[in-house]
């Protein structure tokens, strides 16, 4: 393999020539090595089927063909006489060896991974952890923020397990198995209606296998995905001192242990597994104890029930303590495992569940099941607890935002630093929709001849609160539709304002019909709508708070679903309430099916994958620091892969390397460069394009990608270029308004490259938007300038890091970089 060739001696490198490598990192969408390298014949030189590094077949041994004039693999040399923009006249500049890192199988893979979308609430809660404001790490509020988010994440696991208990224990074993009307025609209910298992307690024990198996499945998936995705260790060399932030701290992403959270994930996995098992045990105990605590229930059962209650309370206390303990050591890769928490706690919870199952299955003559299972009021208490935690997170985030150093946010933080609190609340809302939707649909399926919860039905149905929450969904969707309509109106106004200015940005080109300008202006206007995401999240959050409070109040005050509760209202309101309840119930169930269907289509269809890929990849980019059952973090495999490749290649060849990242790949590239030691970083240049580093990550994750960390990274890397377009809905400048922004950002680039038809370009040039940045001549120019800069640094000549263009084009003026111009 070429990477195993020993580096030439230092004294011989000048004669043999030092190789140059371009390490390409793709974005979302499942790009193939053939597409990235522009050649149908490729070979994987290292890695596996999940993530690997590929080259063109002709370039497999390209290092051995480096001579006095560099890489000679059939590429044309570029001799530039401009000492400011590129190599000098006596310097031969040729294209580097192209190499592609393909990581698409980390997030796409087979269609079965679409089921990960059902873990969406867990992923969103994990995002809230990383959205904390950029206050100093030593601020006490940071610890409080982390504890609150982890408690909210733990409540989501309890909510999921409680919903499984609601379906299996309450609707099936307690209600339907005890109702002759409901059980008629359901042969699969035979074990619950006849024989030894027919008593209520034993029916509940048998049904408890479903939520217990669900908890075990989540534990297994978390453990398995850790082994496949997140167990990659960083290179065994310290990164060295990084450029400190204004507060004197090192950027989080430069810490050696940031991408290796094994100890924390192991402990959180144990805590959430124990929470799931204890939730099942609590449901069994609540049902059996409600019967035993009645007058004449017997002294022995009551005593045993009280002892079990104490055991479960102690188990819950231990689970909460393990979940909120600090254990993410980022200053170094932490290989330790908290064996007590990781092994003893889940085993103890399983033992408590077994004892509770024996207690619930004990013979109780005369025990019958009716109405709803005792303990279903837990859903209301969970909603109150999650609302209180979200409010506490918001208050803590506000305090942290106020304590952030000047310039750490630059007025661009989403929702004024409250983005994490809003996302945490939306995670709870998503969890309520998914769990409530399943319960509603199962109840409707069991009671085909009636409506659950309404007089005359075969079963009492799910808790009333779930019906009220279902009725809130159509109203919430109406809020979203109104916002989207308003955004479309704003986009139309922006298009009309920009249309007359489009043609002026293409000086010296033939004019065409106004439709061309309208088309370009429309793309620019719609691309700008990405910046409206914080307003949309804020609107949905406010509506969720109001509707959730209304649902809680309505369910507590009436004890009836919205339809029957509104029966005495005047005019058409009763019919409207019934319609909203029915529509909401169907929407809750449909959203579960839609998520699975959308996920399967996204993993099979490239266009659909690009549509939803950016949001999914943002969610799974971050380590599982709050919820261990969230989908796996692909960056804990990808970032060490890239770091290892850059370290080993530069050490063995002594050559130059430019890591070139598009879209989400630019985030991975920046994170990998941050992990390099200073010597390796001195031989590496960074080229990003279509990058969401500031537009998405900097606004929503200011502690890791805010202005201060980005400024520190630009000072760490000897030369960094970022290309962007106004027509790009995802990418943008990475340092807008910064003193160093003019040195890092080049743009907006023209898109399309040509306005009208010319003899050289007789056909209309396409509007590229977020893709095909390599088609712009600026890409090759900037890549060559970066490599030449590395040459000059190696020779001790350090020119200023300036853009590569030989003359500043009209679209490159300051007003264009600020985004004031209509077209790139």
TrEMBL record:
<feature type="region of interest" description="Disordered">
    <location>
        <begin position="731"/>
        <end position="775"/>
    </location>
</feature>
<feature type="transmembrane region" description="Helical">
    <location>
        <begin position="471"/>
        <end position="491"/>
    </location>
</feature>
<keyword id="KW-1133">Transmembrane helix</keyword>
<feature type="compositionally biased region" description="Basic and acidic residues">
    <location>
        <begin position="51"/>
        <end position="66"/>
    </location>
</feature>
<feature type="transmembrane region" description="Helical">
    <location>
        <begin position="303"/>
        <end position="324"/>
    </location>
</feature>
<feature type="region of interest" description="Disordered">
    <location>
        <begin position="790"/>
        <end position="824"/>
    </location>
</feature>
<feature type="region of interest" description="Disordered">
    <location>
        <begin position="29"/>
        <end position="91"/>
    </location>
</feature>
<feature type="transmembrane region" description="Helical">
    <location>
        <begin position="144"/>
        <end position="164"/>
    </location>
</feature>
<feature type="transmembrane region" description="Helical">
    <location>
        <begin position="270"/>
        <end position="291"/>
    </location>
</feature>
<keyword id="KW-0472">Membrane</keyword>
<protein>
    <recommendedName>
        <fullName>Integral membrane protein</fullName>
    </recommendedName>
</protein>
<feature type="compositionally biased region" description="Basic and acidic residues">
    <location>
        <begin position="806"/>
        <end position="818"/>
    </location>
</feature>
<feature type="compositionally biased region" description="Basic and acidic residues">
    <location>
        <begin position="743"/>
        <end position="760"/>
    </location>
</feature>
<dbReference type="InterPro" id="IPR029058">
    <property type="entry name" value="AB_hydrolase_fold"/>
</dbReference>
<feature type="transmembrane region" description="Helical">
    <location>
        <begin position="344"/>
        <end position="362"/>
    </location>
</feature>
<feature type="transmembrane region" description="Helical">
    <location>
        <begin position="378"/>
        <end position="401"/>
    </location>
</feature>
<keyword id="KW-0812">Transmembrane</keyword>
<feature type="transmembrane region" description="Helical">
    <location>
        <begin position="413"/>
        <end position="439"/>
    </location>
</feature>
<feature type="transmembrane region" description="Helical">
    <location>
        <begin position="576"/>
        <end position="597"/>
    </location>
</feature>
<feature type="transmembrane region" description="Helical">
    <location>
        <begin position="535"/>
        <end position="556"/>
    </location>
</feature>
<feature type="transmembrane region" description="Helical">
    <location>
        <begin position="204"/>
        <end position="221"/>
    </location>
</feature>
<feature type="region of interest" description="Disordered">
    <location>
        <begin position="1"/>
        <end position="20"/>
    </location>
</feature>
């Amino acid at each position: 393999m070429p990477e195993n060739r020993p580096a030439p001696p230092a004294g011989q490198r000048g004669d043999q020539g030092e190789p140059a490598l371009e390490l390409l990192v793709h974005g979302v969408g499942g790009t193939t090595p053939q597409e990235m390298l522009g050649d149908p014949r490729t070979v994987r030189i290292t890695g596996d089927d999940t993530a690997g590094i590929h080259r063109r077949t002709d370039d497999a041994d390209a290092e051995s063909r480096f001579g006095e004039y560099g890489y000679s693999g059939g590429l044309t040399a570029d001799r530039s006489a401009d000492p400011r923009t590129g190599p000098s006249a006596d310097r031969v500049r040729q294209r580097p060896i192209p190499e592609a890192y393909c990581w698409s199988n980390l997030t796409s893979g087979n269609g079965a991974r679409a089921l990960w979308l059902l873990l969406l609430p867990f992923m969103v809660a994990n995002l809230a952890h990383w959205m904390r404001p950029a206050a100093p790490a030593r601020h006490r509020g940071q610890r409080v923020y982390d504890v609150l988010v982890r408690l909210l994440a733990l409540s989501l696991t309890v909510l999921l397990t409680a919903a499984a208990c609601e379906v299996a224990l309450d609707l099936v074993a307690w209600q339907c198995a005890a109702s002759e009307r409901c059980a008629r025609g359901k042969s699969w209910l035979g074990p619950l209606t006849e024989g030894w298992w027919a008593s209520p307690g034993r029916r509940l024990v048998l049904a408890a296998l479903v939520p217990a198996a669900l908890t075990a499945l989540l534990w297994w998936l978390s453990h398995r995905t850790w082994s496949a995705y997140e167990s990659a260790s960083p290179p065994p060399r310290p990164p060295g001192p990084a450029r400190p932030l204004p507060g004197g701290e090192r950027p989080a992403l430069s810490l050696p242990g940031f991408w290796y959270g094994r100890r924390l994930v192991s402990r959180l996995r144990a805590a959430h597994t124990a929470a799931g098992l204890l939730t099942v045990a609590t449901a069994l105990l609540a049902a059996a104890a409600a019967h035993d605590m009645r007058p004449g229930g017997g002294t022995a059962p009551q005593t045993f029930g009280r002892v079990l209650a104490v055991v479960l309370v102690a188990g819950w206390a231990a689970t909460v303590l393990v979940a909120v303990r600090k254990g993410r050591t980022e200053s170094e890769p932490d290989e330790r495992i908290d064996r007590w928490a990781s092994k003893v706690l889940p085993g103890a919870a399983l033992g408590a569940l077994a004892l509770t199952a024996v207690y619930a299955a004990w013979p109780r003559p005369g025990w019958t099941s009716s109405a709803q299972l005792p303990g279903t009021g837990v859903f209301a208490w969970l909603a109150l607890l999650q609302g209180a935690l979200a409010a506490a997170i918001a208050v803590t985030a506000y305090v942290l935002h106020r304590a952030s150093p000047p310039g750490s946010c630059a007025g661009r933080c989403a929702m004024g630093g409250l983005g994490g609190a809003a996302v945490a609340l939306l995670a709870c809302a998503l969890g309520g929709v998914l769990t409530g939707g399943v319960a509603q649909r199962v109840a409707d399926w069991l009671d085909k001849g009636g409506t659950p919860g309404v007089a005359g039905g075969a079963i009492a149905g799910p808790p009333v609160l779930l019906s009220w929450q279902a009725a809130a969904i159509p109203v919430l969707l109406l809020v979203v539709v109104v916002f989207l309509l308003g955004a479309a109106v704003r986009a139309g106004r922006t298009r009309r304002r920009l249309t007359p200015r489009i043609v002026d940005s293409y000086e010296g080109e033939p004019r065409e019909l106004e439709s061309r300008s309208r088309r370009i202006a429309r793309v620019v206007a719609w691309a700008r709508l990405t910046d409206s995401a914080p307003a949309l999240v804020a609107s949905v959050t406010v509506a969720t708070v109001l509707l959730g409070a209304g649902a809680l109040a309505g369910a507590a005050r009436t004890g009836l679903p919205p339809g029957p509760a509104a029966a005495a209202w005047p005019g058409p309101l009763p019919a409207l309430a019934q319609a909203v309840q029915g529509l909401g119930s169907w929407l809750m169930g449909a959203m579960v099916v839609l998520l699975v269907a959308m996920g399967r289509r996204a993993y099979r269809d490239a266009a659909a994958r690009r549509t939803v890929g950016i949001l999914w990849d943002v969610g799974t980019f971050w380590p599982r620091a709050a919820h261990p059952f969230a989908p796996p973090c692909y960056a804990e495999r990808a970032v060490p892969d890239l770091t290892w490749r850059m370290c080993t290649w530069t050490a063995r060849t002594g050559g130059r390397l430019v890591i070139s990242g598009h879209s989400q790949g630019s985030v991975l590239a920046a994170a990998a460069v941050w992990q390099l030691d200073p010597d390796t970083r001195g031989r590496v240049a960074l080229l990003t394009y279509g990058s969401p580093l500031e537009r998405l990550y900097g606004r929503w994750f200011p502690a890791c990608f805010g202005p201060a960390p980005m400024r520190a990274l630009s000072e760490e890397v000897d030369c960094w270029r970022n290309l962007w377009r106004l027509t790009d809905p995802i990418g943008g400048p990475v340092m807008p308004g910064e003193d160093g922004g003019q040195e890092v950002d080049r743009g907006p680039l023209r898109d399309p490259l040509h306005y009208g038809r010319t003899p050289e370009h007789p056909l209309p040039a396409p509007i590229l938007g977020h893709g095909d940045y390599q088609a712009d001549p600026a890409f090759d120019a900037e890549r060559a300038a970066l490599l030449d800069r590395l040459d000059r640094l190696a020779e001790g000549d350090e020119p200023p890091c300036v853009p590569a263009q030989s003359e500043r084009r009209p679209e490159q003026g300051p007003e264009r970089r600020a985004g004031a111009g209509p077209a790139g």
